[in-house]
Amino acid sequence: MDIYEDERTVSRADLAAWLRQMASQLESGQVFYGAAGAITVADEVRCELEIEQEGADEFSIEIEFSWVNPKAEPEKATPEQAEREKPAAAEADGEADTAGSTGE
Fold first, then answer.
1. Which of 25, 47, 77, 96 has the greatest number of CB atoms lying within 10 Å of its CB?
2. What share of the chain is helix, strand, coil (3-state, %, to 5)?
């Protein structure tokens, strides 16, 4: 779901100023957008940089940041994750997990 999108043509100097402003906001932990929007940035962020040549004379740079809201509820484990965690939980309770060892 898109929250906000802005696309425009600017000078190289204005782009550099915008990137400096964005860097400052990222460092502070909150990015502002639109008239009154803001989003909190987690302490750990996944980053992606993509540089493409889209023709003889056209280039693009895409920068993407993504993170999980630390206040969000943890996701439910997938069946594979639950199965991997099952033996560790059984050992912690002092129980042996014998279902997998009999081949049943």
1. 25
2. 30, 25, 45
Closest of 12, 31, 11 to residue 21, by C-alpha? 31
pLDDT, one tens digit per residue, over 14-51 is: 999 999 999 999 999 999 999 999 999 999 999 999 99
Cα–Cα nearest to 5, from 28, 30, 27, 37: 37
CA angle, 101 then 102 then 104, to 5°: 115
CB-CB contact of 99 with 87 (8 Å): no
Distance CA(37)–CA(34), nearest Å, equals 6
- Map out the domains of the chain as residue ranges: 12-66, 73-104
How many whole angstroms separate alpha carbon 26 and alpha carbon 3? 17
Query: Are the beta carbons of 90 and 84 closer than 8 angstroms?
Result: no
Cβ atoms 39, 70 nearer than 8 A: no
